[in-house]
Each structure stands twice: as structure tokens, then as C-alpha cells.
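Subject: Spore germination protein N-terminal domain-containing protein

B.,
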Amino acid sequence: MEKDKERQSIRTGVKLLFCLLVSGFVFLIACQAVEPEKRAYPQVIGIDWQKEEQRYTVWMHMASLAEDTGQRKQSAETQPGNELYFTGSDGAQIHTAYEATREQYLDIGHVKAVIFGTSLRENRERLREVLTGMESESSLGNSLCIFTTDSLSELSQAVEEQGISLGDFLTGLYENRTDSSAQAPVRLADLYRSCHTDTALPQIPGITVKDRVLMVEKK
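Prediction pasted inline below.
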């Protein structure tokens, strides 16, 4: 009888310890959570390679917090038209630059499209490096729409001047077409596949700016 009581006491102690550990873990997660209004939400990310400077340029077109998360509160950091720029020799340097200059947590879970500059797209080694880093970031997924442009700076300037919600514009070109002109977009997964199989890239739709008007040349 005493042994049975001892075993029961041990089982109870183990269960209690397990519950305490789980409760503590949940508490830690809750403490580490960042409120939506304290996050920055890129809607579109543009990346290019500067050959002469041997560094990457990253442009982030920020989303509207209310539109993309359903929150009423908005931060001046996340209004459409707020364009962020960073440069670095690799992803770690760019991330460090963001952390040193922005107080908000960078949440890339709402990115809708990625735009590769021509210089990066034509440099297979650098593009592979970028794609490898992107593929390791699970929150990006692999269904993002892919585009290319000759000049990220010209594109970002036009977007900022017109106050365009670029992510909605680019994805809407495909999602809002139901007639015979509808085409399937090039997805990030398509570029991953080309990278893994060492085959030619798919024909990526190009974005141009003419008289401050954005035009997308579909494949």
C-alpha cells in the first residue's frame, strides 16, 4: 500500500511539474509577443545588386496596418508611401541596419510581392545567394508574386509620389482578371525550382515607369 501511495505521489508530482513547465513556456511566449501596432509590415520588397559598390540594395514598400491586419490603430511607420531603404553586403548587414534605425519589429508575413532589379536578376550567383536566404525564411512562404525592374529607385519614387498600395496593385493584376487575358503569375516557388535544378529562370514580368505611370509587362 505504501509503495502504491509513493508511486501515486510521484505521478502527481510529475504531472504538476509538467503543468508548471507548460504554463511557464506559454507565459514566456506571451511576454515575447509584439503587439500589431508595434510592428512594421512590408507589403513589397525590392532587391538589387550594386556591382560597383559590391553590395545589395533593399527597398521596402510598407503596408497599411489597418488594411493588412484589420487593426484600427495605425502607426506613421506603416502608412502606404513610407519607403524604407537599406544597403549591405549580405542579409545580416541589412538586418543590422534595420535594427539600428527602426524601433518596430519587422514582420514580413504580409509581403505580397518581390521585385528583383535587373542587375541582380542577371547575376545568377548573387541571385542564388538571395534566393537561398529567402527560402530559409519560412514566414515568406513560396507563393509571392515575382517581378523585375530596371530601376528600383525610379519605381519607388513613382510609388511614393502617387501613394500607391503597390502590393495590392501588383497582385490585383492577376487576381482581378477573369477573362481570357488572365495569366498565372510567376511565383517565388518558380525561382526556387530554377535555382535547385540549375535551369533557366522563367520569364519574369517587368515593371516600367512612363510619365510617372506604372506599367507591368506580363510574360
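The chain has two domains: 1-33, 36-217.

T.
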